Amino acid sequence: MELRRRDYQVERPLLNQKQLEELGRWSSVTGTHQWRTWLQCSHARARALLLQYLPVLAWLPRYPVRDWLLGDLLSGLSVAIMQLPQGLAYALLAGLPPVFGLYSSFYPVFIYFLFGTSRHISVGTFAVMSVMVGSVTESLAPDEDFLQDLNSTVNETARDAARVQLASALSVLVGLFQVGLGLVHFGFVVTYLSEPLVRGYTTAASVQVFISQLKYVFGLQLSSRSGPLSIIYTLLEVCWKLPQSVVGTMVTALVAGVVLVVMKLLNDKLQRHLPLPIPRELLTLIGATGISYGVGLKHRFGVDVVGDIPAGLIPPVAPNSQLFAKLVGNAFAIAVVGFAIAISLGKIFALRHGYRVDSNQELVALGLSNLVGGVFQCFPVSCSMSRSLVQESTGGNTQVAGAVSSLFILIIIVKLGELFQDLPKAVLAAAIIVNLKGMLMQFTDICSLWKANRMDLLIWLVTFVATILLNLDLGLAAAVAFSLLLVVFRTQLPHYSILGQVPDTDIYRDVAEYSEAREVPGVKVFRSSATVYFANAELYSDTLKQKCGVDVDRLISRKKKLLKKKELKLKRLLKEEKLQRQAAASKGTSVSINANTSIRDIESNNMEGSKAKVRQGEGSRVTRGLAVTSGVEVTGDMGQGILLVIGGWGSWWFCESGETCFLPTAPVVTQLEAGHFFDASITKQHLFASVHDAVVFALQHPRSGPVSPVSVS
């Protein structure tokens, strides 16, 4: 037969489960104990563990220097040029002195180079993570706690020291959470953060970032707030204090923003002709610093500047463990959000370039980056989308680019950092706001999700509103809880349908959707799109009654009455036989023929009664929960069988005569065997390989009888 032909014909015998197992030589799969492999000790096992937890040893010895080194060097330089201004700016978001943003752009990046599995993401400071850290530092170390008695001014030195201590302890705790979750293979936790949830959350976080930078744009002194509705109160305070704005600061921010936007447009227009993108942020920072130093923006116009940036590295400091109790909740939220952002972006690049990202190892790598960074006074980091795109587009192939960028940052920290002391904070705020364009454009998700999936739109909107109103930590918890409740709600309201046969095929589709699909006379095919369990069993039963006319409770009641009649008949037959035996014994005559006839009747009734008892037990299980039921016998005036096709775990059919035909999936067969479901009345001969097999069996066997090999074409 030619492969190009679109039609085909298969002829095979009707297959029940028993015949299918014999034909396919089915055998149960013995489960393996994973813990046994964990406890194995060998040279190969030790080497595998070393390469698993230190991936750099696996790919660096095979690094193609001639092909990839130049691209990684250029990419690392480009990323470092972006890291410098973003590190300084995002430190302000975290409520810390700008130099700590440079530290957070060096230590974690180099640690990820050793332990990470993604070749293209750029680890370091990120706006969402920074604003989450800032909400913690400003709530636990507000300006009001560091007011000086004489003139009610804030002691910035003491405040910054307290906030740095909080941020570093938070980073250590975030790292411990991530490493611990990674070691116990808890990377799947990110699956509970759906894409609409993450995008709604990051959009709300970008709004919070935007509002938090308004004080630097207008040169205002605002009160520190945290908790629910804090961002609303901050926005109201900004509006209230607008008359107190510093004109020089506003002009500086406006000019810097315009320059950044114009250079961004030039980059987009000339990207095909430029080997590297124009370092717009770095050039803006250098120009703004030079102008501020030459004109004296701070002294003449009251423009707030970055201030002292100490040269060189600082020694490691042990975190204050007494702060852990206050930070544990926020640390877990930051750990999950940071990992969700990193793994989402990492998988995008991995799919694009054909390699694999290990989610559990990514947790370990990010955790070690934050853990080591916290010891060196860094705040929690994740990966940046903008820097990752630059790292990929400029020729980056591995995390060698990340190592190169961290070395450039090290040079800046040691030698060049102090040159940016006169950099206006308004310029950093303008750079942050301009970089929010990508996340703020996620508002367009509302239109696309409205057309594609309104349940996902509901998750997006609830996440956004909850994050805006409840702040970042409580907003994330509320969003995850709502998402899980929505999953349960979806399983309680699945799609139910009646299936019909597509003409001249063995395919069954929803008759409401396929106009040519026709119901098979004498057979009903009923399908549920969700697994049946205790939460939706009652609704399933009601829908079954509505669509197929099967009243489970009524059937059970009628069945019990029928069983009671059979039991009374059986007792009457036994009593008649006993009387016949007594009469025969008194007369001394033989009644072997009559007795034998009665015995056959009794045996027949016993068998019928035993089957009836089994059916009664099945019906009772239906009322408790349809997910574990074996069937409902259709009796009385219902002249058709019913084929129930339950999406998720199995299907079954019941005909008027009492025959029960099932169509379960393979895991369900195993569960039925483990639960001792099969007996003399219900065997694997009542299980079928497909819907069409069961329909053919129903049509060929309207009454109970031995199963015969009916051909299915």
TrEMBL record:
Cellular component GO terms held in the UniProt record: membrane
Bilayer topology: Multi-pass membrane protein
InterPro entries from the UniProt entry: S04_transporter_CS, SLC26A/SulP_dom, SLC26A/SulP_fam, STAS_dom_sf
An example molecular function term from Gene Ontology annotations: secondary active sulfate transmembrane transporter activity
Record field: transmembrane: 68-84, 90-115, 169-193, 246-266, 278-296, 331-351, 363-382, 394-414, 426-451, 457-489
Domain of life: Eukaryota
UniProt keywords, alphabetically: Coiled coil, Membrane, Transmembrane, Transmembrane helix
Domain SLC26A/SulP transporter: 69-463
Main location: membrane
Location(s), subcellular: Membrane
Coiled coil: 556-583
Name of the protein described by the UniProt record: Solute carrier family 26 member 6
Organism: Equus asinus asinus
